[in-house]
Specification:
This protein is 57% helix and 11% strand. It has 14 helices and seven strands. The protein has a five-stranded parallel beta sheet, with helices on both faces.
Length: 320
């Protein structure tokens, strides 16, 4: 019985030791969400886990976004961010904290206050000031607070020189900061951690964090659908339904690819067909209206004048 108890006691000590080791190596990421997984808290969790690390998270902002960009921000109150942090640091005691998106002065102050009380060994800050599309995410006043309150506490602050020259890659700064945090959590010096992080990132595929955008494919499908149905349907909702997407998403796609709305593309195709029929056939205006699904000749005339600035008869005279 004594022998059995001794083994049991040693086993418990080993489990406790392993758990303590895992907890001390935990990395806390404090940032916003990115539903695509290309950046934000989702990317941090994925990336650090792939490296073999342990990660806990605090969310500062919830975003409505896809591979086309961010449509909405819903920033969490500072009190909620603080309570998230306190729950994690009191329990898991992470010694490395990685910080990304902070969008309000109140949140900056709350984060700094908890960090001052808790005093983690390392703080890694990756400034998230603009989106990959160039949209401003943080106001100058908020960043002034970050420079004054947070940056002096940090072990590592990523700068523009840390990011490769060339087109902005979605999530690259995020990946670099996460990798640095991982190597710091394993006891490496700052210079070693940065070197190993950069080396690791060079091995990743170029499109590692780009997501699976199908924008160009969908845009081409939309243009094909317009070509097929323009003589019967002029409403965006019809084409969105055919492509099994929302009208809003279809609009995001066409604006990104062609810098135009879906409606303008549909109208252009219909108007082009009207001009061809006016100038290259002997069809009457009533016949053209019937062929292209207009309710009447008058309806077609109003539509055409809005698009071209001339009535169909005036256009025909000028281009005959």
């Amino acid at each position: 019985m004594i022998w059995s108890f001794s083994i049991f006691s040693v086993t418990l000590q080993a489990i406790s030791s392993a758990r303590t080791q895992d907890m001390s190596a935990t990395i806390l990421t404090i940032t916003g969400s990115d539903g695509t997984g290309g950046s934000g808290v989702q990317a941090d969790i994925r990336f650090i886990n792939e490296l073999g690390g342990v990660v806990a998270s605090v969310v500062t902002s919830i975003t409505v976004q896809n591979t086309l960009g961010i449509q909405e921000f819903h920033d969490l109150p500072a009190s909620v961010v603080r309570r998230q942090m306190e729950a994690i640091v009191n329990d898991l005691q992470p010694q490395v904290v990685k910080i990304g998106l902070l969008r309000s002065i109140d949140v900056v102050e709350a984060v700094v206050d908890v960090l001052k009380q808790y005093k983690p060994r390392h703080i890694v800050y990756a400034p998230v000031l603009k989106s990959a599309r160039g949209d401003l995410l943080v106001t100058p006043k908020v960043y002034e607070a970050i420079e004054r309150l947070l940056i002096p506490m940090c072990t590592v602050v990523l700068e523009a020189s840390d990011i490769p020259i060339g087109p902005r890659k979605h999530g690259h700064a995020n990946q670099l900061a996460s990798a640095v945090a991982f190597y710091l959590s394993h006891g490496e010096r700052t210079d070693e951690a940065m070197l190993h992080a950069r080396t690791y990132l060079k091995q990743l595929p170029a499109d590692y964090a780009e997501g699976s955008s199908r924008s160009e494919e969908l845009y081409n499908q939309f243009r094909d659908a317009v070509e097929q149905y323009f003589s019967r349907y002029a409403d965006v909702a019809f084409y969105a339904e055919q492509l099994n997407v929302s009208p809003r998403y279809l609009g995001q796609v066409t604006r990104r690819i062609a810098e135009r709305s879906p409606k303008s593309i549909i109208d252009e195709r219909i108007t082009t067909e009207i001009t061809l029929l006016l100038t290259h056939t002997n069809k009457s205006l009533k016949g053209i209206a019937l062929q292209l699904g207009f309710s009447s000749q008058a309806h077609l005339s109003r539509y055409f004048k809005k698009q071209k600035g001339l009535s169909p008869s005036q256009y025909k005279i000028h281009h005959s």
